[in-house]
């Protein structure tokens, strides 16, 4: 696809006789945020190494903004934030970013402004050896921002960050996407990526088993919607008998229904009148879909 900043076509990877990846197809368009999910050993790290050109492809093709992995053009277009980010402890944040700018062939950027953007303005002249893990992670994100990359690969980007810093990081990821960067996020933080990505791709034992929007995956899986009915007075038993639901405490009944039965069940509950005080409806979450597509083989 010509409009895809990252294009992965029928990619397989063997390690000895073992097939680590099997005919994987995946595209990420400019400005798109795609979550890459899979349990440990599913092939996420191997795929990232292939994109970066750190290991060879057994068959298939990968293009980064039209260039082959490992080429000068692909390296210039790609930014990578590893989970275990590491920098020279004797350098300051300012010195490290200036070094990266020189190494990348003169990538221009206002270093103090970048460090301020990731919440490190008070530490730009402190030695990195004094940084916490979360601070090093934010410095790594500043490195990603430095070159205005075409493709950003983020491996567990919120590792070591507190809740506020996590929100700030995803705000920056949104900015990256808004400026046209294709963002691929490998993560186990399902709640985060559920709300902050455009598409979900799931690997299982080296094969891509899902790749779509959350809504489309929900429709495809057909997982039940959970209805929680809160009863007035002592009507919980009556509601449980009428709906076939299960009492979960003294005043509520839980009911599971198929996607195409939601309106039918809501009308049936509404017909119970004053015996019902409230209804909460919970559609399948990404965690449910992940377990479904990964066949429960998660860690």
Automatic annotation (TrEMBL):
Q: Which domain of life does the protein's organism represent? A: Bacteria
Give UniProt keywords alphabetically. Answer: ATP-binding, Nucleotide-binding, Transport
InterPro entries recorded for this chain?
A: AAA+_ATPase (IPR003593), ABC_transporter-like_ATP-bd (IPR003439), ABC_transporter-like_CS (IPR017871), ABC_Transporter_VariousFunc (IPR051782), P-loop_NTPase (IPR027417)
Q: Name one GO molecular function term.
A: ATP binding
SMART domains of this UniProt entry?
AAA
The answer to whether keyword Kinase applies is no
Q: Which SUPFAM superfamilies would you find in this protein's record?
A: P-loop containing nucleoside triphosphate hydrolases (SSF52540)
- Looking at the record, the residues that make up the ABC transporter domain are 6-230
User: Which PANTHER family does this entry report, sorted A to Z?
Assistant: ABC TRANSPORTER ATP-BINDING PROTEIN ALBC-RELATED (PTHR42939)
Spell out the protein name for this chain.
Answer: ABC transporter ATP-binding protein
